[in-house]
């Protein structure tokens, strides 16, 4: 009996010793402190105000320039900001969100499932399908509302879901079109482009009617475009806001790399703000929501500075490399990455280049190439910033 107890105690001590060893190794790997070294305190405090100004400039300037003539820039400037911002958002998703999320959620100190499965990419994949399903429901809801407003189940909504009659011209329209072309041969040039398909993301038919008549197809189309743009802007804001919180905390608690990180984040926040602000400015806000764009821009402008201020307040206790911080940061970055990837690729790139009328007509192809080139510059510069932050 004594031998049994002795063996049991020895085994228990061995297990306890191994557990303590594992905990010690876990604490060594998941550092419970941060890199803050007490230097550059003046610059750290100034970063709150500098990044507030740059973030506000990026998000507010497109809105102001689209509303007030005294600061209104040439249309080409808005064109450049629009596509530059699209590239910035796509690069942010891959370089500034998904890659750090993968690093955090695959840290060796986490162990278990974190080392057995690429959780960051799995969460991002889930968010892509969640976003797509949410858009399916939103457009189906708009389609149903359009039918109810028209008072007939035969009326056509302008979402990109529906039967063939929404996309192909009826035979009667074809006959009338052929008659008109016979009388006007000059119009034949545009037939191939416009006979069956209209590359409009929210509407696939051209029906000539008075746009001022409330309840017409054109009126419903405008409502649907507004609802879709509103949804996209809120989703984009949501993804960017979460990312801004963590980069503010990281800057405040950084060590020797503070100077380089500070400089990079100034450009990062400006570029990201331009991308978000341009998208906000493109929405045709009704009078009942006239304050919404300003609130969205203000929320972006203040998020990172407030996070920096909070980080400075807890600079001696906030552990950015602790187990909890790594998991929380990684999960939210993965969610934000999924949101921005879907928004950037589908709503910005595909919508603007494939489903809009902006590049139709004479000179459209050249304009499209310029837009693509500007978007690549935005993505390239934002990706380059990932070298330091």
Task: Give an overview of the whole structure.
GO terms for molecular function: low-affinity zinc ion transmembrane transporter activity. Keywords: Ion transport, Membrane, Transmembrane, Transmembrane helix, Transport. Pfam families: Zip. It is a single chain. 71% of the residues lie in helices and 0% in strands. The chain has 389 residues and is mostly helical. The protein has one domain. Helix 8 runs antiparallel to helix 11 and helix 9 runs antiparallel to helix 10. It is globular.
Our Rg estimate from Cα atoms comes to 27 Å
How many beta-strand segments?
Answer: 0
Residue-averaged pLDDT, rounded?
76
Structural class by helix and strand composition? mainly alpha
Q: Biggest β-sheet: count, sense, barrel?
A: none
Q: Which residue ranges are poorly predicted, with pLDDT under 50 across at least 5 consecutive positions?
A: 1-5, 7-28, 152-173, 186-218
**What is the percentage of strand-forming residues?**
under 5%
Share in helix: over 70%
Query: Count of DSSP helices?
Result: 12
Oligomer: single chain
What spatial form do the alpha-carbon principal axes imply?
globular
- Overall tally of structural domains: 1
Tell me the series of helices and strands, N- to C-terminal.
Answer: HHHHHHHHHHHH
Distance between the termini: 63 Å
